[in-house]
Design brief:
CATH class of the largest domain: Alpha Beta
Structural class: alpha+beta
CATH architecture of the largest domain: Alpha-Beta Complex
Distance between the termini: 39 Å
Largest sheet: 6 strands, mixed
Number of strands: 19
Shape: elongated
Number of helices: 13
Radius of gyration: 25 Å
Helix content: 25-40%
Bound molecules: glycine, manganese (II) ion
CATH topology of the largest domain: Creatine Amidinohydrolase
CATH superfamily of the largest domain: Creatinase/methionine aminopeptidase superfamily
Number of domains: 2
Strand order of the largest sheet: 6-5-4-1-7-8
């Protein structure tokens, strides 16, 4: 695949034009407890453009600049800190190993920045997003304006990165799709293992451990906090306590995915703790599955980004009317908002370096845009019948079901990356029968 970072920087600089300049900061370490930190995760924009793995760095891209278009500010080498915290590339490594045209230690940022911004018309920088960095950036703008009468020019406009970098990130390259396919493949294997490990009397945290062990053993980490919810815990959309026992007769909903080189999978499966769906569970499950399949089929070039939700909502509403959970016509159930009682989230989101990835869903006029090849989206319809739901047959109470796949828009049919774990109820029962 080669190193894609230079190509991505070139594409961004092309989109900004010769009068633009961009500042893209790395992530910072986050304190977990006193002087220990959460595992470091690089900022997605910064990773996409640089591949530079260290915290605190800042990239500046200046199209056409003779002294160099790609300038990196990095932590300086420091023998003592490196003994405690790990290796640093330093400015020299930033050039030699990461392809920067120029590199400086971080403490030179504010003295170098005026030279990089002077004469440019538009600064591409997401203000109010990077905390303390707004200070030096806005001070530099002010300083440039003050000396403007001596011929320097300060950028007149500041633009967030949505219109440029985030639209670029929305369309995945062949190499990115290959990474996402691999992340999805291993994550699907992890879900298979979870199905094989589940039985009454085991506990949510043990099944979470099965999933995460498989990810870690493949040099991956969870791309988001795993949701492992037995019984009516599945009706809590962001349930992450994962601290309850699994009971015979309940379903288990698992929403978990691993991240590989920054790209995450996002998979949900819902299966019976004892290996057999009950009648009411199966009835609702098959409705959600039909919605999942119909929604996936919408991910084709030229179709509206809103169409998977429309298709899924229709099938879910039909199912709820058929099973007696909703009254009235299917149209009325959708239009009145009655459906939202049992289906209160969207049907999918962009997927990539971020689990809820960047890229617009709508055009400037507010209408949904259309799908194009290279977009990757989740498809995740569900039904959640909260315990004690008034007016609902008690046999359905406490059932929560979601089925989530990761899907690439291609020139032709949608490409499902997460087919390695079954979703057909009979196939899940067959897999679990082999435990
Ligand atoms: N796992 C987060 C989501 O499904 O959106
Ligand atoms: Mn999702
Ligand atoms: Mn999910």
């Amino acid at each position: 695949m080669g190193m894609p970072f230079a190509e991505r920087r070139a594409a961004l600089m092309q989109a900004m034009g010769p009068q633009g300049v961009a500042i893209i900061p790395a992530a910072h370490e986050q304190v977990r407890s006193r002087d220990t930190h959460f595992p470091f995760r690089q900022d997605s924009d910064f990773h996409y453009l640089t591949g530079f793995p260290e915290p605190e760095a800042i990239a500046v891209l200046c199209p056409g600049r003779t002294e160099g278009e790609y300038v990196l500010f990095v932590r300086p080498r420091n023998a003592e800190r490196e003994v405690w915290d790990g290796r640093r590339a330093g400015p020299e490594g930033a050039i030699v190993r990461y392809g920067a045209d120029q590199a400086h230690a971080l403490d030179a940022f504010e003295t170098e920045l005026p030279k990089l911004l002077a004469g440019r018309q538009t600064l591409h920088y997401t203000l109010a997003e990077h905390g303390a960095l707004d200070g030096p950036v806005t001070r530099t703008l002010r300083q440039l304006r003050e000396i403007a009468r001596r011929g320097a020019q300060a950028p007149a406009a500041i633009e967030a990165l949505e219109a440029t970098l985030h639209e670029q990130r929305l369309i995945k390259s062949t190499g990115e799709v290959a990474l996402m396919a691999e992340a999805a493949r291993i994550s699907a294997e992890a879900h298979v293992r979870a199905m094989q490990a589940t039985r009454p009397g085991r506990n949510e945290w043990e099944i979470a451990a099965e999933i995460e062990r498989h990810l870690l053993a493949h040099r991956m980490v969870p791309g988001y906090t795993s949701i492992v919810g037995g019984g009516d815990n599945a009706c809590i959309l962001h349930y992450t306590e994962n601290n309850q026992p699994l009971r015979d007769g309940d379903l288990l909903l698992i929403d978990a995915g691993g991240e590989l080189d920054g790209y995450t999978a996002d998979i949900t499966r819902t299966f019976p703790v004892n290996g057999r769906y009950s009648g009411p569970q199966r009835a609702l499950y098959d409705v959600v599955l039909a919605a999942n399949i119909a929604a996936i089929d919408c991910l084709r070039p030229g179709r509206s980004v809103g169409s998977p939700h429309e298709a899924a909502s229709r099938i879910l509403a039909e199912g709820l009317v058929d099973l007696g959970l909703c009254d009235g016509s299917v149209d009325a159930v959708i239009e009145s908002g009655a459906l939202r009682r049992f289906y209160m989230h969207g049907t999918g989101h962009w997927l990539g370096l971020d689990v809820h990835d960047v890229g617009r869903y709508r055009q400037a006029d507010g209408e949904y845009r259309n799908f194009a090849p290279g977009m990757v989206m989740t498809v995740e319809p569900g039904l959640y019948i909260a315990p004690g739901s008034d007016g609902v047959d008690p046999r359905f109470h406490g059932i929560g079901i979601r089925i989530e796949d990761d899907v690439v828009v291609t020139d032709g049919a949608p490409r499902v990356l997460t087919g390695g774990v079954p979703k057909d109820a009979a196939a899940i029962e067959a897999l679990m029968a082999q435990r």
